[in-house]
Design brief:
This protein is of the alpha/beta class. It has helices at residues 11-20, 54-63, 78-91, 117-125, 177-186, 204-212, 237-252; strands at residues 2-7, 26-32, 46-48, 68-71, 94-98, 111-114, 130-134, 150-155, 166-170, 191-195, 216-219, 232-234. The chain has two domains: 2-101 and 223-252, NAD(P)-binding Rossmann-like Domain (Rossmann fold, 3-Layer(aba) Sandwich), CATH 3.40.50; 111-219, NAD(P)-binding Rossmann-like Domain (Rossmann fold). The strands form two sheets. The protein has a six-stranded parallel β-sheet with strand order 3-2-1-4-5-12, with helices on both faces. It has a six-stranded parallel β-sheet with strand order 6-11-10-7-8-9, with helices on one face. It is elongated.
């Protein structure tokens, strides 16, 4: 029996948990950060809350007999990724990163890539006056100085405090192309700011921006934190399952 910790919070993590639920050779628990009050829960056992850093995570892995960590966190969740990269080898636990590929700019797109959210705010201010933010609630503070811009910020839950210069739209995806196009057109959006999250669930906003001729400020993913040179990365759940099968076979040989 391989005991697996899935560091989750993404659609891929939920798909993976469901794929492992009925296997007799695997027992898994999913971990969520607990940043939203009503998260989408995966199938199977779930723990909610942080671990307190790499040392505490390593202790938890040892205490719970975890043989494999599947890091399926969001591409921008740099803190837990760093902790997992350090904790897994310290605990003698196998580590795999599941990360969806980023989006690719097309010939009709008008993307402006930035490093960091302060740079994104500066870029957005130079591109338009009605800004649509789809970056989550944790990075809205970078845009609070844009008092002469109208800003629509889409969030799952309200930030604390609520930025006084923003109109909040409380919503959770996935979103359709028609709804995204209608939203941007009705609010006369002239610049979209987003993160390079990748995947199909939130991609319709990029297609809508393309069709409406709206420029996109794309915040690049943070660089991968330092970790073991042999830390593997796969782009999909199928890759995780193949990796786990090899790990189980090696352990039974």
């Amino acid at each position: 029996m391989l005991r697996v910790l899935i560091l989750g919070g993404t659609a891929e993590a939920r798909v993976l948990a469901a794929a492992l639920a009925d296997r007799r050779d695997v027992q898994c628990v999913s971990s969520l950060a607990g940043r939203v009050s009503r998260p989408r829960l995966p199938v199977g056992p779930v723990r909610i809350g942080g671990f307190g850093g790499p040392d505490s995570l390593a202790d938890w892995l040892r205490a719970n007999g975890i043989g494999a960590v599947i890091d399926a966190t969001h591409p921008y969740a740099a803190g837990i990724r760093r902790s997992a990269l350090l904790a897994a080898p310290a605990a003698g636990t196998a580590y795999l990163r599941l990360e969806r590929p980023g989006w690719i700019e097309g010939p009709q797109d008008r993307w402006h890539r930035t490093v960091g959210f302060e740079a994104a705010a500066a870029a957005a201010a130079g591109l338009g006056h009605r800004i649509f933010l789809t970056i989550g609630r944790q990075n809205l503070s970078a845009f609070t100085a844009l008092h002469d811009r109208w800003i629509l910020a889409r969030v799952v839950e309200d930030p604390d405090p609520v930025p006084p210069n923003m109109t909040l739209l409380r919503s959770r995806g996935p979103y359709s192309l028609d709804s995204e196009t209608s939203l941007m057109a009705s609010h006369r959006i002239d610049v979209l700011v987003t993160k390079d999250s990748g995947g199909p669930l939130t991609e319709p906003k990029l297609v809508a921006a393309r069709s409406l001729g709206i420029p996109v400020v794309m915040v690049d993913r943070p660089p991968a934190p330092p970790g073991p040179a042999d830390a593997a990365v796969v782009p999909d759940v199928a890759g995780v399952l193949r990796w786990m099968d090899r790990l189980i076979q090696a352990g039974s040989g």
